[in-house]
Amino acid sequence: MSLNVFKESNDAIEALASLFIKDAKLAIAQNDKFSVALSGGSSPKKLYELLASKYKNEIDWTKVYFFFGDERYVASDHPDSNYLMAKTAMLDSLEIADKQVFKVDTTLDPASAALAYQRWICGFFDDEPIFDLVLLGLGDDAHTASIFPGTDLVWIDEEQVKEVYLKDKEVYRISFTAPLINDAKQIAFLTFGANKADAIKAVLEGEHDVAKYPAQLIKPTNGKLDWFVDEAAVSKLTQK
């Protein structure tokens, strides 16, 4: 695990964009395609906008295939949709073809949507899903993807994609499970802001309790794990 600390959040975003491009170039050179699972929420939006502008001509985007590490159970044109955010911030600007974007089919019921997405992913990878890059965020409660504290997703060890009902929010989400994430060649957390300091301290230095701090589940099987953070986010760590 590598903890990359930057003075400002924009510096962390810039460094992660460089990693994205480096991994993409390597994967395309080796396999003629690059598979990436995008994260949702507000943090990665600037990353996507940067990739679609400054790095627009750095790689062959026709060979990049986009997936979603989790998705809210809403229509694809709903303001809360992770797909819509990525589409608006990056995919449209890069003129990414529909066949390169694997979005969750939220017209199905949640369980069917999760199963269909898992089958779609397995089909793309010929049954052994190993993403070139999985992008993750970290919630204030130490959740990542949609693996929230106290939910069944914490204990999943077979399914690769699973639906989860969040009682406090009264909504469903569809999410990669930890085993699928951990099989990736590269995993990268993008986390910044003082409001993340408690969560990062809990995940990296707290007691081992995955039910309470689900992001502790993220431990690559054979790949690499990098954190891209600003100084405010790691202000409570005893070791940096």
SSE arrangement:
Elements: E1 2-6, H1 9-31, E2 34-38, H2 45-51, E3 64-68, E4 70-72, H3 82-91, H4 110-124, E5 133-136, E6 161-166, E7 171-176, H5 178-182, E8 186-191, H6 197-205, E9 224-230
Parallel strand pairs: 1-9, 2-3, 2-5, 5-8, 8-9
Antiparallel strand pairs: 4-7, 6-7
Helix pairs in contact: 1-2, 2-3
Essential attributes:
3-stranded antiparallel beta sheet, Rossmann fold, single chain, alpha/beta, 240 residues, globular, 6-stranded parallel beta sheet, 6 helices
What's the overall geometry? globular
* Second CATH tier, the architecture: 3-Layer(aba) Sandwich
What integer value in Å does the Rg equal? 17 Å
CATH class: Alpha Beta
Strand content: 15-25%
- Briefly note the CATH topology name: Rossmann fold
Provide the number of structural domains. 1
Strand neighbour order, sheet with most strands: 1-9-8-5-2-3
- Outline the biggest β-sheet: 6 strands, parallel
Please provide the ordered H/E string of secondary-structure elements. Answer: EHEHEEHHEEEHEHE
Helical fraction equals 25-40%
Averaged pLDDT: 96
